[in-house]
User: Which sequence fits this backbone?
């Protein structure tokens, strides 16, 4: 199946700590994207990393991509209570559709 | 910041009835998508739409489903003869280009089939 798979699926951390999530996929991609979903809301795009990139930063977010291992990680530094959400990776195989993983539930305790 | 808007936020329909879910994509975007998320499961791609025609569809998107861009702003998903298993959150998304661009999602329509 050509879908991202995140690991771990649930994470509970103290405010100020870092949160790391991983995602793996099975075949070559054009790019990989991370999205956040707050309860009852839509998916909010966080960051896109292309297949020829290895690392990308956006504010407190850091994404890495290892195409040899077919995996990506999302790091949220200095977490805040407002970061509590589900985080999804989505792979873009260049076929005009995104394939989402199951998501990571992150709870940041104030 | 421009948003994708979806209406209604919640739709309750009797099994066998037809339902139309509506979306207003971001105005300068050219590619439109529908996804669904059954409770507790992954977000699943249904269909993509460009230049007034379907460009890609999944195996879920069978003859029961259709999409339309009836005017310059709306993008609709019609589900004919709804089944219990159609109950899900349906998300509309749009993007400037097909590949290599983020997709912007609406807040979804929760469809409940009774």
Assistant:
């Amino acid at each position: 199946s050509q879908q991202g798979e995140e690991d771990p699926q649930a994470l509970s951390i103290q405010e100020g700590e870092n949160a790391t999530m991983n995602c793996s996929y099975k075949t070559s991609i054009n790019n990989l994207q991370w999205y956040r979903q707050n309860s009852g809301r839509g998916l909010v795009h966080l960051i896109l990393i292309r297949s020829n990139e290895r690392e990308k930063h956006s504010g407190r977010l850091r994404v890495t991509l290892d195409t040899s291992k077919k995996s990506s990680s999302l790091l949220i530094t200095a977490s805040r209570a407002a970061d509590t959400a589900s985080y999804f990776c989505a792979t873009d195989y260049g076929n005009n559709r995104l394939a989402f993983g199951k998501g990571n539930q992150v709870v940041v305790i104030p | 910041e421009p948003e994708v808007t979806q209406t209604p936020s919640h739709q309750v329909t009797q099994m066998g009835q037809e339902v139309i879910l509506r979306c207003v994509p971001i105005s300068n975007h050219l590619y439109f998508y529908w996804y669904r998320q059954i409770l507790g499961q992954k977000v699943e791609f249904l269909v993509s739409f460009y230049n007034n025609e379907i460009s890609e569809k999944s195996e879920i998107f069978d003859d029961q489903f259709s999409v339309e861009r009836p005017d310059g702003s709306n993008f609709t998903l019609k589900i004919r003869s709804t089944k219990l298993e159609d109950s899900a959150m349906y998300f509309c998304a749009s993007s400037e280009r097909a590949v290599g661009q983020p997709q912007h999602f609406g807040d979804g329509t929760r469809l409940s089939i009774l």
Q: What stands out?
A: The interface with chain B takes residues 3, 30-31, 33, 35, 40-45, 48, 50, 88, 90, 92, 94-103 of chain A (CB under 8 Å). The two ends of chain A are 38 Å apart (CA to CA).
